[in-house]
Amino acid sequence: MNIAIIGTGFIATVHAEILIGLGHRLSLIVGDNVKHAEEFASKWNAPAYSDTFNDIDDPNIEAVHICTTPALHYAAVKQCLVSGKHVVCEKPLCLNADEALELVNLSKNKNLAVCVDFNVRFHTLMSHVKETISSRDFGPVFLMHGNYLQEFHAMPADYSWRYQEDVAGNMRAVTEIGSHIVDLMRYLTNLEIVEVSANFGYVQKERHLKDQTMFAENLANSTPISIQSEDAAIISLRFSNGAIGNFTLSEVSHGRSNHINFEITGSKMSVWWNSETPFQYHTASKGTGIKTECNAFGNGFNDTIKDLVRGFYDSIGTDVHATDYPYPTLLDGYKNVVICAALYESSQNNGSWTKVTY
Question: pTM score > 0.85 for this model?
Answer without folding.
Answer: yes
